[in-house]
């Protein structure tokens, strides 16, 4: 099984930096594979808790090299919940890569563990008779301090449902649970890694950013 690692995060940072420089990113230092994956960007401001700046991935298996290249940019620049990340924000970013594994069909909407499982829900919106779906990565519910029911209700809203959330609606959910491996790195740790392994710090349009 492929596990998330440092080189995958480095490749995501490389890809974003290369985008700002209108260049090609250096080739990745990890092997090919086929897995569902996700890239999450957060921003640390004024020493506070990192705040989400973009998170997009795929629940279907795909080539992880192309996947991390594509979703590093998609999550940074095209997450519709946020303005695109700008180059000047790089020093304040941290990146998390997730490799998703162990997909299982749950018995019901409570058949999963907070902090262990990510969840995918699918249900029919009774107001419009349309199918809706959404997912949270394994770390989300634990980070937010949610109970399982609170996480489910939040995910129902994330899926776009605006009606009353009833117990009957919850019971009609088809839930798939999964697990993940993840790796997180700050921009300054990325810069230090690049300096150590390549002998020079990354730049954006010729200017160095960060503490190096």
Q: How does this model look, in words?
A:
30% of the residues lie in helices and 32% in strands. Helix 1 (6-20) crosses helix 2 (64-77). The strands form two sheets. A six-stranded antiparallel beta sheet has the order 2-1-3-6-4-5. Strands 7-8 form a two-stranded antiparallel sheet. By secondary structure, the chain is an alpha+beta fold. The chain folds into two domains: 6-101 and 181-198, 2-Layer Sandwich (Glycoprotein, Type 4 Pilin), CATH 3.30.700.20; 110-172, no CATH class. The protein is elongated. InterPro entries: AMMECR1, AMMECR1_dom_sf, AMMECR1_domain, AMMECR1_N. It comes from Handroanthus impetiginosus. This is AMMECR1 domain-containing protein.
Structure at a glance:
This protein has 212 residues and is an alpha+beta fold. Helix content is 30%, strand content 32%.
Tag the structure with descriptive keywords.
212 residues, 6-stranded antiparallel beta sheet, 6 helices, elongated
């Amino acid at each position: 099984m492929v596990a998330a690692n440092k080189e995958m995060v480095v490749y995501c940072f490389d890809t974003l930096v290369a985008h700002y420089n209108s260049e090609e990113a250096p080739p990745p230092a990890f092997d090919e594979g086929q897995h569902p994956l996700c890239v999450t960007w957060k921003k640390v401001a004024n020493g506070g808790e990192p705040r989400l700046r973009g998170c997009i991935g795929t629940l279907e298996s795909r080539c992880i090299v192309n996947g991390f290249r594509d979703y590093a940019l998609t999550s940074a620049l095209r997450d519709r919940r946020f303005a695109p990340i700008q180059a000047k924000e790089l020093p304040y970013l941290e990146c998390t890569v997730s490799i998703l594994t162990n997909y299982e069909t749950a018995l019901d909407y409570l058949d999963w563990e907070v902090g262990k499982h990510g969840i995918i829900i699918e249900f029919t919106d009774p107001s419009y008779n349309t199918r809706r779906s959404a997912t949270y990565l394994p770390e989300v519910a634990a980070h937010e301090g949610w109970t399982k029911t609170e996480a489910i209700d939040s995910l129902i809203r994330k899926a776009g449902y605006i009606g009353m959330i009833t117990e009957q609606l919850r019971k009609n959910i088809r839930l798939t649970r999964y697990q993940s491996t993840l790796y997180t790195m700050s921009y300054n740790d990325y810069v230090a890694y690049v300096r150590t392994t390549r002998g020079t710090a990354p730049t954006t349009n010729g200017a160095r950013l960060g503490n190096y």
